[in-house]
Task: inverse folding
């Protein structure tokens, strides 16, 4: 016959096993499913600012670093057609990882629970460029002209249109805007005379020879760098792995030409303080993307 002490010991063992089971369940709920398993195909989204072919050439070093460093099956690069299409894919969780324009990254974080990981440095300005030889001499000469922009929903375009409005130049009234869908196409529109000016970033995407043939009509605002964001379902452990791998890539020799093509020179952790600076653009961004 079992003694009282033996019964008590058996009860304590059963309770201990049950406690371990509960802790394991809670741990699994906290961490979530393994987002980056060894056979995982990582869907990496990029900004729609260059052609798909150019995007692949630019981002290939990063893709290889992620695939090797995280032991992934492969990294699949996806470039949406425009900024509205990008945000629609964000709403559908169509990416695992996205290199996002900063204002859309903040919107995705605040409204949909995406996770900012790293931010590109340094910051840029929005600039309005014209042909040096025969372009408009000043802002007043822009009246009745056409300005090429990558996308009306791009932060560089939002900042520049606001700056022009503050100087008495209204889109639709004083000048026309055409969307070109890539920086290369904006440059072609300017070169061929389809547009008399184009909105650009202060660094990246234009080679020095082409830049020497252009002049700056206006510089405006401050543009925080691109932000790499992870989908809402990514668990805490995988978020840390992704951030660590991205920061490690930024310190490799392969990252140098990668940064140069994009007009940046490093990566840093995307802090809440840095992301909060984008809040003034939230309402405008959300309204434009509807």
Result:
């Amino acid at each position: 016959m079992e003694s009282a002490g033996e019964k008590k010991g058996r009860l304590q063992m059963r309770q201990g096993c049950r406690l371990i089971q509960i802790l394991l369940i809670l741990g699994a709920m906290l961490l979530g499913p393994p987002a980056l398993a060894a056979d995982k195909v990582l869907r990496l989204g990029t900004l729609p600012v260059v052609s798909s072919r150019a995007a692949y050439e630019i981002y290939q070093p990063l893709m290889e670093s992620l695939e090797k460093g995280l032991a992934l099956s492969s990294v699949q690069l996806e470039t949406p057609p425009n900024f509205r299409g990008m945000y629609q894919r964000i709403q559908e969780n169509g990416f695992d990882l996205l290199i996002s324009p900063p204002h859309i990254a903040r919107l995705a974080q605040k409204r949909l629970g995406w996770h900012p990981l790293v931010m590109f440095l340094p910051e840029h300005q929005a600039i309005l460029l014209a042909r040096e030889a025969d372009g408009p001499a000043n802002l007043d000469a822009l009246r009745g002209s056409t300005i090429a922009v990558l996308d009306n929903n791009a932060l560089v375009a939002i900042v520049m249109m606001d700056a022009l409005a503050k100087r008495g130049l209204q889109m639709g009234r004083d000048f026309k805007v055409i969307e070109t869908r890539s920086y290369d196409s904006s440059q072609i529109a300017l070169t061929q005379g389809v547009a008399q000016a184009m909105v650009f970033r202060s660094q990246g995407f234009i080679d020095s020879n082409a830049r020497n043939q252009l002049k700056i009509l206006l510089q405006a605002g401050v543009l925080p760098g691109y932000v790499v964001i992870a989908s809402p379902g990514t668990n805490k452990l995988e978020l840390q792995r992704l951030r660590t791998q991205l920061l490690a890539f930024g310190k490799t020799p392969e990252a140098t030409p990668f940064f140069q093509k994009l007009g940046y020179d490093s990566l840093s952790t995307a802090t809440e303080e840095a992301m909060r600076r984008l809040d003034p653009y939230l309402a405008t961004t959300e309204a434009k993307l509807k």
